[in-house]
């Protein structure tokens, strides 16, 4: 369970990235991921530009759901099931976290 204060911090931090053009943000974020883990690149079959927007929009949606933990958990579980079919393994989520923090670092310089 997140406290109101924790939710406010996440929302405030996310707004820093949300103001950046998703095409630019996605390019930086996915480039970082694929440089660190080139083996992940072949999992992405569609155009990356579309993926940038989907990823950023989904994160925005999830951040907006943080105060509704039931819905949040359900939405993440459904998305996780789709990701199993894409060939994603639990350990791959660590690299998303690392690349996101790295992107935050750049965005807040
Ligand atoms: C915070 C975690 C993540 C979020 C919010 C996220 C978001 C998304 C979204 C919105 C899509 C579009 C299709 C759909 O909704 O099913 C997608 C597709 C995909 N994601 Fe993720 N994802 C996350 C983690 C990961 C991880 C860890 C990987 C590991 C490589 C990954 C690989 C993929 C792949 C391969 C696709 C399909 C793309 C394609 O077919 O071109 N995602 N993701």
Mind explaining what this structure looks like?
This protein has a single domain (4-107), classed as Globins (Globin-like). The mean pLDDT is 92. With 109 residues, it is mainly alpha-helical. It has 5 helices and no strands. The termini are far apart. The chain has helices at residues 4-18, 22-36, 48-64, 69-86, 92-107. Helices cover 74% and strands 0% of the residues. InterPro entries: Globin (IPR000971), Globin-like_sf (IPR009050), Globin/Proto (IPR012292). Keywords: Heme, Iron, Metal-binding, Oxygen transport, Transport.
Features:
109 residues, mainly alpha, single chain, 0% strand, binds protoporphyrin IX containing FE, Globin-like
Break the fold down into its secondary structure elements and pairings.
Blueprint: H1 4-18, H2 22-36, H3 48-64, H4 69-86, H5 92-107
This protein binds protoporphyrin IX containing FE.
Tally of individual helices: 5
Instruction: Return the structural class.
Output: mainly alpha
Rg over alpha carbons: 14 Å
Cofactors and ligands present?
protoporphyrin IX containing FE
Q: Tell me the major beta sheet.
A: none
Keywords: Heme, Iron, Metal-binding, Oxygen transport, Transport
Family: Belongs to the globin family.
InterPro entries: Globin (IPR000971), Globin-like_sf (IPR009050), Globin/Proto (IPR012292)
Organism: Spirosoma endbachense
Offer a quick outline of the entry.
74% of the residues lie in helices and 0% in strands. With 109 residues, the chain is mostly helical.
